[in-house]
Amino acid sequence: MKKTLIEYLPFLIAGFIGCLLIFSAVLNPPDYGDNETINIAIMAPLSGGLAEYGMDVKVGVDMAVDEINRKGGINGKKVNAIYKNTWGYPDRAASLMEECADEGFPVVIGDITSAGALACAEVAEERHVVLISQAATTPLLSKYGPYVFRTISSDVYQGRGMARIFRIFHPEVTNITVLYINNAYGSGLTTAFVSAQEEGGFRVNQIMPFEEGQRVFTEEIAAIKASETDGIALITHVTEAEYILKEAKAQGLRVAWVGSDGIVTTELYAHVGSYTEGFIATMQSSEVHDQAFIREYRVHAKDEGTVNWMAPYSYDTVMIVAEAIRYGGYSADGIRDGLGKIRYLGVCGPKVFEESGDTPPAFDVMRIENGEWTRVSWKEITETGTSGAGTAH
Fold first, then answer.
1. What is the CATH architecture of 156-287+364-387?
2. In whole angstroms, what is the distance from residue 234 CA to residue 282 CA?
């Protein structure tokens, strides 16, 4: 049956509007600035106790920048990553954020720690510079305004995930100690985890904070061993986790462990050994299927092992910022507006920003098997949850 012109009208109107948008973009191209290059500031701890994370940030960022430039850059302009070493200190991160604003950077990627990102967020809003973190998970970051974003989800969701993992993989656990690092990352995730204890079917019988950079945990482990604890929620970075687990091994502590994403690095088993075998942790979803990405990662990282999650998150974040610049221009307001429209499918999955600057949650379950972190399949999670199986470490 032939269609009349009226029946085609909706399609003709849509096509006409599409043409108008294309012509508008051609007639009003984004402003990429007068410089020959597009500089993006990268904040990361390239030295100090968190340098292992910082090196993975650099690998991911360098991979993205190299790829963008191989494909012609942004509107023919080369992209440069300008690194700012935070040393892992929030105060220094805030000072560097001020420095970035003074130097005219419209966008800064980082800081990776929750405390550092919060310190930078204050400056970002005051100086109208876009801040986008690939690793800061504190729920407090959601309260900031239109210039603050992150490509990783809030710990509000991860806390519930950790509780669920205890219920599925360790249903025998009834009394849990939360051992957490006393900073924005640790306190935010602890609050979320404790609030989910009823859902998890267990009781949090003690909450034990420790200081960032702490190296001796003799008293903490002894107190846990003397209590009724049969499970530990370990919320920290890998640096402190190594000392905690070495002390737990030395004192013969036998409990079920579930860790946070901060401990999921190849260094944990390398430094602690077989005591960590079977250790389970939650992690922001970063399953990398792209074999080309994996090969390139191993070249940049000079490591044939597991792809540490900080690298693909940093890679995706640079790619997202590049897209925002490509369509919004090289200005804070243009990048901010571009990020609000982003619908990006990267190596860490789909990314879209909510009004708060957050991205929706997506988590994996990781387990150390034969000395390496491996991803637990959803089939196993489902079947284990149904059977109620689980054993303590």
1. 3-Layer(aba) Sandwich (3.40)
2. 11
Residue 288 has what pLDDT? 73
β-partners of residue 344 are 351
Chain CA centroid to CA 261, Å: 8
Single out the residue of 125, 156, 118, 66 nearest to residue 336, CA to CA: 125
Return the CATH number of 37-154+289-362, one of 3.30.200.20, 3.20.20.220, 3.30.530.20, 3.40.50.2300.
Answer: 3.40.50.2300
pLDDT in tens, 223-232: 999 999 999 9
**Alpha carbon distance 67, 56 (integer Å):** 17
Look at residues 274, 242, 281 and name the one whose alpha carbon lies nearest to residue 258: 281
Residues 354 and 149: their CA atoms lie apart, in Å, by 9
Contact 175, 232 (CB under 8 A): no
Query: What's the CA gap between 343 and 350, in Å, rounded?
Result: 7
- 74 DSSP 8-state letter: B
Give the separation between CA 294 and CA 187, rounded to whole angstroms.
34
The strand pairing partners of 305, in sequence order, are: none
Which residues neighbour 245 within 8 Å (Cβ) at sequence distance 6 or greater? Answer: 268, 272, 275, 276
pTM comes to 0.76
User: What pLDDT, in 10s, does the model give residues 308-360?
Assistant: 889 999 999 999 999 999 999 999 999 999 999 999 988 888 899 998 899 88
What does DSSP say about strands 372-375 and 363-369: parallel, antiparallel, or unpaired? Answer: antiparallel
Nearest to 201 by CA among 225, 175, 224: 175
Terminal CA-to-CA distance of the chain, rounded, Å?
Answer: 70
Q: Residue-wise over 373-383: b if at least 16 C-beta within 10 A, else e?
A: beebeeeebee
Residue spans of the chain under pLDDT 70: 1-29, 286-287, 289, 385-393
Determine the pLDDT at residue 29: 66
So what's the pLDDT on residue 20? 45
Peptide bond into 111 cis (omega under 30): yes
CA-CA distance, 181 to 311, in Å (whole number)? 23
